[in-house]
Structures are given as structure tokens and as C-alpha cells.
Specification:
With 731 residues, this protein is an alpha+beta fold. It has 13 helices and 36 strands.
């Protein structure tokens, strides 16, 4: 297959040359998207699939498909508009400055160039010349990873403003046989609940309208299988998400000819955008990976891309920690906290994290109904301030981190009393609270300064502060911005301007403090997208830390995120033994939320040894290739594996997920993956509980070929509910 040359190619075509039918390939190693102009100058998608042998075949593709309905309507427009010939769901819908509701975009030019991060960036200029309206479609294709980032820039040069009613980031078109969509519904403590369904004629829409904590009810992550149900190692799949931290909408439309249109972008709900002359509106990116070998390959490629190109410090290190939340909740003082520092040191973790409840004086933060917004140390709880705690933690040999929720305010706070105009609320309606709080208006530059100032002051006053947990617990009720009103900006801009304000704050934080790890938390998994991962090192998947439930959640998150960003804590949730809880939490970034000082001797010894073991294999989990081996939705056990780059070492996690007496968990081996068939490996069980002996013969040697064809039975059972196996190359 011929690749796009690594030089800038710029094509300008006049209307008289449209008959040449310009072809634009969007290529990665294993996938090809072909865009082609019609004789009328309209840009259409004519192919999305495996690479073709040669570019001379590109021109023959369009003739092989029927893209029109019986009445001549076109389904495969690359960016579908409304008000003219189109009869399907539009990607872009506008009201022109003269009130006309039509828009027709025609191809003007395109260019393709190699970027500095091993990708090809394609930009395509479309224009409605009658209305001086321009759209630029962007496709950034990472060749090796088969990842595409797609967004749109919209502008016009009319004399008055244009109202955009809908403005999608991407408009994809597929010509496969049948389509299955896996989406993930959310609730608090029930995140990533998978739902797989066959797409049939009509539109399937998935969206969220919450503004902040936007994913509380619906995840933006999706799996689209294009040739039957999604499978781990076979079939064409598209895995992705809209990288946007607020309201999104997906439209999956199976049209009359059986093909699929997919539109993704900001949710147009209550978000009509008034675009001024000369202003450029950039949509968020749809990020997706394509694999013709199933979800396993797709996930590994997306993980690799994320670590290399998107997640802050994606190839770096992370800090293990002990959090005080479930040990103390709001009830603590300096003495309680310093005692927990000793627990962190004995446990062997890197950091102690002080959670909610450390601030506010007029309205002390002794519960979730007061103090939020007043970010000064509570003098009764912490008479010597945060600096003292940092010093005491350092003396114990651990780092110190802290919790903040800077976007929110309690009505019972000095901030609310002093700045009610900073709060998102309808002025003529009763206030509606979520977790006894309201959302600050980040569309307002003064509020942005305030939120940045919280982080700035903490880190300036405490330069040894090593970690921040950034929470966001409330959705937006009664959406109204006093600031936008004073600026005479339509209230329909509020969700967009809030999100842009959040990004502006995070850009300032990272410009001044580029290295401090920051956890993205949102009452659990209410946030977690690849736009915020430019600024955050990790995220909190769920407040549900029951290890059995976490197996399913972490399994589903693994389709989209590398383990290095997934914070997994050991708590007292669930009925499983400590070993099971630690083993499950070791599949991501390990943390503890327990009263470590109250562990019995065996549990304490196990936890200390498990932290040491984790430190020995964490690089495998954080940076290795992940293989899902045994699906817990279909079997009595779950098994998942990480392999390092040179295939010299691997770690396999095995868990019992069916506690019925007649479980078949021990009846068959787990077949490994990702090893070198020609290498020899020794196996060793890790995290063996004190007093128990492992059944694995550490002197025995297995070929990679054997382990990937026959496998190894981990002997998971009701008495042995979790087993970690390390495979190491024999040299």
C-alpha cells in the first residue's frame, strides 16, 4: 500500500475541475478511509475498511457501492448539512444571518502533512460560497496505533451573527453487514454497566445533559462492532469517545440501504451557539481506534497512543498511597492524621492523601453541607496548617497529598455570602442543590482566577505538596450565568463556556505546575475523558470499591484506558478477604483506604509484602500490553494479563467471580497471550497469603507456545479466590 508522502501536499481546485473527483485517503497501517468529491463538488465518504493494495484502486471504490436511496437522496456525505437536499440526521444545522436555514458545503481544497508526533494531519476546506460560510474538517491519523482524532472548525464572514443549532465533531459512514453497539450506562457506584445491542433501521442516540459531573448517568465510551457482535480477537471494531468534559451526543443511524451513519459531538441540547463574524468555533475531538482483529488489539493500540501522546506523564511513574477518607471521614485532627502517617510508612506506600474536611472556619467543613469554597485550613482541626502536616509526613518518610473541590460551593459558606453572582443559578427560581452544593460559574474569568488561585496558593505555600485529588460532585441545575448576562452572551452558551473555562484553568495550572500528579475525581466516575487527560495524570473510576464489582468495572474501563490512569483502592467494601481486595486493586494504580493500624498480624504482613510485590511488577501493569483472557461476563472467573515490550515478563490476574459451590472455575486452564512462542518461561505465584503454600512448581519451564495454546490452570476456587501468576523468561 502506498502511503501519503511525508511532505506537505496542497491542492486547490476550482469549480471547473470538480469533474476530476478528488480522492482524499485517511490512512493508518491497518485501516483506510477514502473521501471523494462528486461531480457537483460535494465531499462523500466512499470507503472505510482494510487498506487496499494500491492507490490506483481508490478511484474504483465508489462504483462498488450504492450510496443513494430510491429517491436519489445521498447518505454518505462526509459532513452532512441541513436545509437543502439532505433528508438524514445532519452534522451541522444553522440559521444564517438573514434567517435562512439552508447550508450546502462544497469542497474547496485540502492538505496533508506529517506532524512531529508521528502522525498525518489532513485538513479539508469546505465552503458555502453563497453565504460565506466555511468548515474545515480535521483528521489526525496515528499510523502505527490506528488511532484517528477528528474535529471540525467552523467560521463565516457574514455581516451579522449565525446561530448554530447543531455542530458535530465527526460524521462517519460505514458499509458493513451488521452493527452492534456496546455502550456503558452509569449511576453513582454503578459506573460502566455495559449494554450491547444490534443497531436496526432508525436512530439510536446516546447523550448526557448534566453540564458537570457529565458522565454520572452515561459514559462517553463506546464500542462499535461492524461485522457481528464485538469479539476480543476477531472482527472489525471501532472503540472511542468524544474528548469533551460536558454534554455530548452520539447518533447512530442505520439508513434505508442498511449502512450506518455515526455522528458525534457536543450535545445541542440548550446549546445553540451564536457565531460572530470572523469567529472560529472548534469542536471537541472524537478519538477512536480501528481494529480488524477485535477489541483486544484495539485496546492495546489505544492504550499505547494514550500513554505516548495524550495522558499527562503517560510513560512516567505513579504514587501508591493511603487515603484517610474511609478511616476518618470528616472526623479528624492533627493527631489522628499524623498517626496515619505511620501506618502509611509501615504499609510501604509512597504518599498519604488527606481527603475532604480540612478547611473552612466560619462554617467548618464537618460534613458535606458547609464550608465548600472557603479554602483556608480549619484552625480547630489543623492549628498548625497544611505545612505542618507536610513536614510531619516527610519525617515519616512519606509524601503528602490533598483533596480539593474548587469548582463547587456550599450555600453555607463565606464564598457564597460574598459572591452570589459567581454561582450558576436561575435568579427567579428556588435553588436546587446536589450534595448540598452549587456549581461556580467558570464562564466568568473572575471565577477562573479564583479556582486557579486555590491550587496556586496551596502549592506556593507548600512546595513539597506531592499530589492533588480534584473532585467535582455536583451536576448543573437551573443553568444560568450572571456573567454571560452582563456580557450580553446568550445563556445557551453556558455549558460550552463553562467547559472552556475549566480547560483554561487547567492550562494555567499546568503552565506553572507541570509535574504535580493530579487525580480526576467526580463523585466516582463522573469524569474521565481524553481532553482532561492532557492535564490530569489519573482518574477515580468509581466510589464503589467492592472488589467483585470493581473487576467488572475495571474490565470495561480497560477497553478505553491504560491501567496507569486507573486509580484502584483497597477498602473495607465487600465481603472478600484482604488478599482478593489487594489483588484486584493491583490491576491499576494501587492505593489503600483502610485503617491499616487495625489489621491483624497476617493481614498486615500480607499487605506489606503485596506492596513490595506491586512495586516489582507495577511497570508491567502501567506500561505493558494488556490482554483480556477470560471474560467474567461469560465465565466463573476473570483473567487479565500484562506483558512487557520485549515479552520477557508478564503478570496474570485471576479471580473467582462466581461463589456458587458448583463453580466450574477450576475445570480448565487459562490460555495466555502476548508471549514469545519461542521463549521459555518460569511461573511463580505472587501475593501468597501468609501460612499458605503455592501449588506452582517454580522449577518447571514452559515454552511460550505451550502457554499460549494450552495455558495454565490457576486453580482458582472457593478456598483460593484470587491468584496472581508471574511469568519470567528463562535465559
Amino acid at each position: 500500500m502506498k502511503k501519503v508522502p511525508f511532505i506537505i501536499v496542497l491542492l486547490f481546485l476550482s469549480a471547473g475541475l470538480f469533474a476530476q473527483e478528488t480522492i482524499i485517503p485517511i490512512e493508518t497501517n491497518d485501516n483506510l478511509m477514502l473521501l471523494q468529491t462528486s461531480r457537483e463538488g460535494l465531499l462523500n465518504t466512499v470507503y472505510f475498511g482494510k487498506p487496499l493494495e494500491g492507490t490506483e484502486e481508490y478511484r474504483n471504490v465508489a462504483a462498488s457501492y450504492n450510496f443513494r436511496d430510491a429517491n436519489g437522496g445521498i447518505y454518505n456525505a462526509t459532513y452532512t448539512t441541513s436545509g437543502t437536499w439532505n433528508l438524514v440526521e445532519p452534522a451541522l444545522e444553522v440559521i444564517q444571518s438573514d434567517g435562512n436555514t439552508s447550508l450546502e458545503l462544497k469542497y474547496v481544497s485540502h492538505k496533508q502533512e506529517a506532524t512531529s508526533d508521528n502522525a498525518i494531519l489532513t485538513s479539508i476546506l469546505l465552503e458555502d460560497a453563497q453565504y460565506n460560510f466555511q468548515v474545515v474538517l480535521y483528521y489526525k491519523a496515528w499510523t502505527k496505533e490506528n488511532v484517528i482524532e477528528q474535529w471540525t472548525e467552523i467560521k463565516h464572514t457574514q455581516k451579522e451573527a449565525v446561530v448554530m443549532k447543531k455542530f458535530a465533531s465527526a460524521n462517519l459512514y460505514f458499509t458493513n453487514k451488521e452493527y452492534y453497539l456496546t455502550s456503558f450506562g452509569n449511576e453513582w457506584a454503578k459506573e460502566m454497566q455495559r449494554n450491547e445491542e444490534k443497531l436496526t433501521r432508525g436512530i439510536k442516540s446516546i447523550d448526557t445533559k448534566l453540564g458537570t459531573r457529565a458522565y454520572l448517568l452515561q459514559s462517553p465510551n463506546f464500542i462499535l462492532a461492524c461485522d457481528g457482535k464485538a469479539a476480543e480477537n476477531t472482527g472489525t471494531v471501532v472503540i472511542g469517545q468524544l474528548a469533551w468534559s460536558s454534554n455530548f451526543r452520539y447518533d447512530f443511524e442505520v439508513v434505508a440501504n442498511g449502512n450506518l451513519r455515526f455522528l458525534a459531538g457536543i450535545n445541542p441540547f440548550a446549546s445553540e451557539y451564536t457565531l460572530q463574524p470572523g469567529e472560529t468555533f472548534k469542536t471537541p475531538s472524537l478519538i477512536y481506534v480501528v481494529s480488524h482483529k477485535g477489541t483486544g488489539e484495539a485496546s492495546r493500540n489505544l492504550h499505547s497512543w494514550a500513554r505516548d501522546y495524550r495522558v499527562l506523564d503517560g510513560n512516567g511513574e505513579r504514587l501508591t498511597l493511603l487515603n484517610n477518607w474511609e478511616a476518618t471521614y470528616f472526623d479528624f485532627d492533627e493527631n489522628k492524621l499524623t498517626a496515619l502517617f505511620k501506618d502509611a510508612k509501615e504499609l510501604g506506600v509512597d504518599l498519604f492523601l488527606l481527603d475532604d474536611g480540612w478547611f473552612a472556619n466560619k462554617y467548618p467543613r464537618n460534613g458535606d453541607n458547609a464550608g465548600l469554597g472557603d479554602w483556608q485550613e480549619n484552625k480547630k482541626k489543623l492549628p498548625n496548617g497544611i505545612g505542618y502536616l507536610v513536614e510531619e509526613a516527610t519525617k515519616e518518610g512519606v509524601k503528602f497529598g490533598i483533596w480539593i473541590e474548587p469548582e463547587m460551593v456550599n450555600p453555607k459558606s463565606e464564598l457564597y455570602e460574598n459572591h452570589p453572582e459567581w454561582v450558576i443559578r436561575q435568579p427567579e427560581r428556588p435553588e436546587k442543590y446536589f450534595r448540598n452544593q452549587l456549581v461556580l460559574d467558570l464562564a466568568n474569568p473572575e471565577v477562573q482566577d479564583f479556582v486557579f488561585g486555590i491550587v496556586d496558593k496551596l502549592l506556593d505555600n507548600n512546595p513539597e505538596l506531592a499530589f492533588i485529588k480534584w473532585d467535582c460532585n455536583s451536576v448543573i441545575y437551573n443553568a444560568h450565568s450572571a456573567y454571560l448576562e452582563t456580557q450580553k452572551v446568550p445563556q445557551t452558551h453556558i455549558y460550552i463556556e463553562y467547559t472552556k473555562g475549566l480547560y483554561s484553568v487547567m492550562q494555567r495550572v499546568r503552565a506553572k505546575f507541570p509535574k504535580i500528579p493530579i487525580m480526576m475525581c467526580s463523585g466516582g466516575g463522573g469524569r474521565g475523558d481524553y481532553e482532561l487527560f492532557k492535564y490530569f495524570t489519573e482518574f477515580w473510576p468509581s466510589d464503589d470499591t467492592d472488589p467483585l464489582e470493581r473487576i467488572y468495572m475495571q474490565w470495561n474501563y480497560s477497553y478505553f484506558f491504560p491501567a496507569i490512569v486507573t486509580d484502584c483502592h483497597v477498602t473495607d467494601w465487600g465481603k472478600q478477604p484482604l488478599k482478593y481486595r489487594v489483588d484486584v486493586a493491583s490491576m491499576g494504580k494501587l492505593g489503600f483506604d483502610i485503617v491499616a493500624g487495625e489489621l491483624n498480624e497476617k493481614d498486615k504482613q500480607f499487605a506489606q509484602d503485596a506492596v513490595k510485590n506491586y512495586n516489582s511488577f507495577k511497570d508491567l501493569v502501567w506500561h505493558g500490553d494488556m490482554y483480556r483472557l477470560v471474560n467474567p461476563y461469560e465465565n466463573d472467573i476473570a483473567a487479565l494479563m500484562y506483558v512487557n515490550n520485549d515479552k520477557s515478563r508478564a503478570i496474570v490476574f485471576n479471580y473467582l467471580v462466581n461463589n456458587r459451590y458448583m463453580s466450574t472455575a477450576t475445570t480448565r486452564p487459562v490460555v495466555f497471550a502476548g508471549l514469545d512462542a519461542n521463549k521459555k518461561y518460569r511461573l511463580k505465584e505472587l501475593n501468597v497469603y501468609p501460612g499458605r503454600r503455592s501449588w506452582i512448581d517454580t522449577e518447571k519451564v514452559y515454552s511460550g507456545d505451550f502457554l499460549m495454546k494450552v495455558g495454565m490452570n490457576p486453580n482458582v476456587s472457593l478456598r483460593n479466590t484470587s491468584v496472581l501468576i508471574e511469568a519470567t523468561e528463562v535465559l
